[in-house]
Amino acid sequence: MTSSGNARVWITAGLLTLTACVAWGRPPCEPVGCTGIDVLPCGPFSIGNFTPNRDPVWVINLYGARYDKETPSGIRPEWRDSDFDGEVAEVNDPDPKWAEDEIPDAFNWLMREMDTGISRGYRRIVLFLPAGTLIEPPGPPDGERPMSASQWWTMPQWKRDAFESVIAEWIDNHPDANVSVYAGYQVYDPCDLETLSAADVVCDDGLPFGTDEIDACIVYNNVKPWLDIGIREYWFDASALHPEGLLSITHADEYDNVHMGGEAVPVTNPCNPANATIDFYLAERAPWMAARRYYFITGFANGLNAYGALATSPLNPTTTEIGMSYISDDDLSASLSASLSIVVSDRVKGFVPWVWYPKAHEAVARAYWPGDWAVATDVDDLGVECVIDFNYDGTVNSGDLAILLGTMGAGGSGRKLHEGELTGDGIVNSSDLADYLGRVSNGCP
Description:
2 domains; eight-stranded parallel beta barrel; 27% helix; TIM Barrel; alpha/beta
């Protein structure tokens, strides 16, 4: 038996059962016992379990607020709103958003964000740290704790109930959508946001992730409740440094048909990335993603190391899924047109976009989709008055017409909005030209 605070982990004859006292506002925790969870060795791993998904990703950040006595896990104000009065606890926007009903306001807010993603063309939605994580007070060795992997049982009961009813129903009603959870990577006690479970280190000093029966059962209890409500994608932060554990779980029978991905891109020498290369053996066996700033920090901008190579060598879309996460203006540019150029360049290189905020969405919609339907809701918010501003510079002029005519002359299919494609068929022809001219004569609606 191991113990930590008010959480207790009992291990008896290979059967794992976890219990927790209700203390410090902690919810009751009743993970299942399990035996026979599929545990695989650290390789070799087949490539057949992974099919790349090239669709852009809509991220809903449930985390990132202040840390204080009331919000020790850092979840944002909207996501803390447990009442039913329709007045979501949103900073600087107190007006009611919906009628009073039997759904907690936090979940009305969440479904609004999910519906927004769907309306803008996304069919992949990531829920980022739904239970939050504990970063303060600073912990060793670098002043921060890792993101917690315990994202289900550490939520209060009312949230788990709403996920099992309201969000499960939303997922059932959107069969073409893939909803996923982004969580920490290490083996955390399912009942505690901050307690690592005692576990062996295996796979050449890799993290103890699902590589023996006890660890596999802990991971199962952190992941399985999400699968039960219809989640079919799951992401683990900071897993590229020790990717063998991630590959072990992706090849386990319990997670068949679940898209299991990791953060950052695995390299051959993670302790010295300046002398490393992309490990495509690992990169072609699971999906990966990272913030654009991360690629720059590690050499993406100047091509000095493994990540820098990604800046010049297009990825193979049939064997890889490597996400480019646009989290803030730091990842793009103050200029709208420059932001579009960045996103178009990343698309040509084979990256899959992860979108966190409006400017990134506008650039991604222009770069990845044909037609105008996915961008019209945000053009005014960003100061762009016309959808036919193809180069995204804030004005409609001969330069935009030249883009359309140039694409029209070059022919080809699979064209996007930034190339002059307005009608949604992926082809730029006389119909798009007529649409363009009509919008000009009507003041560019």
